[in-house]
């Protein structure tokens, strides 16, 4: 599978998902991206629809891997001052 670089909308959406537990783009806030970007992230396996919250999305472990090069559990296990910044290039699958 050829790696695909995330576009600006997908990158904004994925970064926002990494900051919250779940996100509903229909909540009336200006986000800088829409459902199409979230659906593309879902198709890549980087985000998922939240089953008990219709219209909401959440980041997956692969989403964290795309941003930081490690899963959410690995990232959060690091001390705050040792957590890496986001990778420069967000692509999926990584390193392909």
From TrEMBL:
This is Uncharacterized protein. It comes from Paradevosia tibetensis. It comes from the Bacteria.
């Amino acid at each position: 599978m050829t790696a695909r670089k995330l576009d600006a909308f997908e990158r904004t959406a994925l970064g926002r998902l990494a900051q919250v537990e779940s996100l509903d783009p229909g909540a009336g806030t200006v986000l800088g991206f829409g459902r199409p970007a979230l659906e593309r992230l879902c198709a890549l396996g980087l985000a998922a629809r939240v089953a008990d919250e219709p219209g909401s999305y959440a980041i997956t472990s692969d989403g964290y891997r795309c941003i930081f090069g490690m899963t959410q559990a690995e990232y959060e296990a690091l001390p705050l001052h040792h957590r890496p910044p986001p990778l420069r290039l967000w692509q999926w699958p990584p390193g392909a």
